[in-house]
Amino acid sequence: MVDHSAVGRRLAPVTAHVEPGRLRFFRETLGEANPVYNDAAAAKAAGYAATPVPPTYLFCLEMMDAEQAFEFLTVLGADLAQVLHGEQRFAYRAPVMVGDTLRFEPRIAGITDKKGGAMTLAVVETRVTNQHGVHVADCSRTVVVLNKVAA
Amino acid sequence: MSETHQLAVGDRVVHKTFPPISRHKLALYCGASGDHNPIHVDLDFAKAAGYPDVFAHGMLVMACLGQALTDEIPPARLRTFATRFVSITQLGARLTCEGHVTEFVEHEGERCARLALTTKDENGDVKLAGEAVIAI
Questions:
Q1: What mean pLDDT is reported for chain A?
Q2: Which domains does chain A have, with CATH numbers?
Q3: How far apart are CA B75 and CA B136, in angstroms?
Q4: What is the three-class DSSP state of A67?
Q5: What domain range is B90 assigned to?
Q6: B55 touches chain A (CB under 8 A)
Q7: How far is CA B77 from the centre of its chain?
Q8: Which residues contact B44 (CB under 8 A, 6 or more apart)?
Q9: pLDDT tens string A17-61
Q10: Best of B22, B54, B67, B78 to mutate (most A CBs within 10 Å, chain A)
Q11: Could you tell me if the ipTM is greater than 0.85?
């Protein structure tokens, strides 16, 4: 069963760099052809100082540069084979662009048992700031843990 | 897209279809996203976990929805973007992403529109259900 005492626990902060090569790999994987993400001139015309990242890329940056990408599982006492992604939320407060260095500060915000303990929902909330100390985004991930129920 | 200040409730402002999700796509996304969970790329691991095959990362499907969204809405207007992962997206799924205006709201002092978003597969099964708030 999931360790409920983990509520409120802070996970290791992650410092992530928005590198152009890694971002291009992401765009190519997704077939992302929008000029605003691909062409510095189009980004500038749209008001950005540099090329912005697509809306879900924050999630990737945190995983790519984390020392332990699945630290939350260790904290919850769960393993990869028994989890699914239940919900994901982003609130965007300022642009995130190529060249930025971001700091992610995740914490376990809630743990709730469902279906008589057959599953547990854990919410990880992450505040994201950039190299200027600007609060650029908040991310919230709900992880579904499928508990091993005795037969 | 149409000018955002001319939006009306009920307008379909997002609509995009994607090619079938291949194993190759899952392998590329594994590397490109930093999500190295083997359940999406290693058939042996997926079977041992009780699944018939590997399946798509939820965040790959959300990335498609995000692309469909910002094809039409300039990303600088995006204030929030959220989805529930309603069901597992299987290999070969051909996704269709759609978004409709549901209401106009005040969001942190700014005039915004709320969009209801869905991603469905070729059978019409809902994979993602979500919403976005966009400045208008």
A1: 94
A2: 4-146 (3.10.129.10)
A3: 12
A4: coil
A5: 4-21+57-135
A6: no
A7: 17
A8: none
A9: 999 999 999 999 999 999 999 999 999 999 999 999 999 999 999
A10: B67
A11: yes
